[in-house]
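Bench log. Compound arrived from synthesis this morning; before running ITC I wanted a structural hypothesis for how iron/sulfur cluster sits in the protein. Inputs:
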Amino acid sequence: MQSTRLLNLRIAHIRSWVMFRVDACMITQNLKNEYLQAMGVQRWLVRAAGESAVNDGLQVLANDIAEPLAHDWAGLEQQVSACKKCKLHETRTQTVFGIGNRQADWLIIGEAPGAEEDRQGEPFVGAAGKLLTEMLFAAGFSRADVYIANILKCRPPENRDPAPEEVACCNAYLQQQIALMQPQLILAVGGVAAHNLLQTNEKVGQMRGTLHHYGETNIPLVVTYHPAYLLRSPLEKRKVWGDLQFAQAVYKRLRAE
Ligand code: SF4
């Protein structure tokens, strides 16, 4: 009786140890995949006999890895328009690269194209776009005085938030736009833009009114609400006015230095 109990205890111990190893292995594998994905590296999988490589995206990714990013605006825009790195290419009408003055001091970064942007190929059109134009006007700019881009270049279906893997795929394009433009100041409009640019989950309300800096470039970055949010909460407009005044003060100080 005693020996049976001991045997059962040992079996239970061995079983829990094996389960721990399996879990740990899966966690490590998932972590590995996440790191590789963040670095833009696609893992190659062993294919079953007869399985086709056509249209499954692997060949496309292989081509993308082989193709370095263009170092000029026209080349980069062309790469984006042909991009199939994430699933959003399947549902887009067209890519939305960005618009405005490529030598501007101010770069406005939003979230992703909506239905109207997807139709027109231009960021921030429609009601939210009109409000952004008014916000810029209040800060003393026209749309042509700044450059406007998004975190994602293709519209997520049903205007849902961008998925992390979509941002990871698209991020290099925005980084290259920033490198080409070298803006003096970035205005991140809305939580999605702020979270991805600053790698944080803080609420927009907590990030407002503080001067942030974008990545290793250290470009000054100011956070404000997205105009789409202001359309739903018009009382918050005065806060955006405050944010724009803050951004203007930062910009003037930089120019005076
Ligand atoms: S969202 Fe970006 S990465 Fe995805 S297909 Fe469009 S351009 Fe390519």
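What the model suggests: Residues 58-256 form a domain with the Uracil-DNA Glycosylase, subunit E fold (CATH 3.40.470.10). Residues 80, 83-86, 88-89, 95, 152-154, 166, 169-170 surround iron/sulfur cluster (CB under 6 Å).
ITC booked for Thursday regardless.
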